[in-house]
Amino acid sequence: MLDPAGERLWATEAAASTVTDVAWMRNGRRLAVAAYGAVRAHERHTEKPVVTYPYVGSHLALAVAPTGRWICSGNQDASIHISRTRDGSELTMSGYREKVSRLAFDDTGYWLAADGASDVTVWDFSGKGPAGTAPRSLRCHETVTALAWRPGGAGHLATGGHDGTVALWQATAGRPQARLSPARTLGHASAVAALTWSGPDLLLAAHRDGRVRAHRLPSRNAL
Question: What predicted TM-score, i.e. pTM, was given to this entire model?
Fold first, then answer.
């Protein structure tokens, strides 16, 4: 961990293999580190983990719910592994056609978006979580390359594809197993490399041709 001047503040012990993703927990007081075989959580300024969430597999992406209740990893074996932080109980959602390499929770911590197929899946983590439920499916891209929830918890999701399309969704609408269509699409010839929001009304899309495009959108109640 570095300070604004680039000086090292602290470091964890070496992970068992390549670190693939990190995420802050507990309002920045704890750091979750994903590497092969487990997600390990370190308190700030501690070398050794204070808690370990094991899963035998290669983690590719990590998402921690803003509520602090859930830690999710997207995996090489085409699954999402979920740990409940309160008691360490586990759930694995498998059956994806491809590896799961992108995960994102919305601001409420109740909705998780994931790639792993041509459809983006959106899981409901309210109540007891997604066990025994089905996700909503969002189909627009042949290959998903980016995910970004709109700030504010309105259920609006932006997705990007290899075909250059940016799609905007009312991603929490409908019932489980619903297949949703985009509320709006923004086309471009070059593949989408990354998406991020600059506040609730400005979406930034980085494309493989080296351009970054800014899209001004209506108020958070509309797409």
Answer: 0.94
* Residues 134, 92 contacting (CB under 8 angstroms): no
Cα of first residue to Cα of last residue in the chain, in angstroms, is 38
Q: How confident is the model at residue 220 (pLDDT cuts 50, 70, 90)?
A: low
- Average pLDDT, integer, range 142-168: 95
User: Which DSSP string do the residues of 8-47 spell out, in sequence order?
Assistant: B---PPPPSS---EEEEEGGGTEEEEEETTEEEEEETT-S
Segment 179-202, tens digit of pLDDT: 999 999 998 779 999 999 999 999
Return the bridge partners of 25, or none: 30
Give the Cα-Cα-Cα angle 131, 135, 136 (nearest 5 degrees).
160
Q: Are strands 179-180 and 136-139 parallel, antiparallel or unpaired?
A: parallel
CA distance 126 to 144: 25
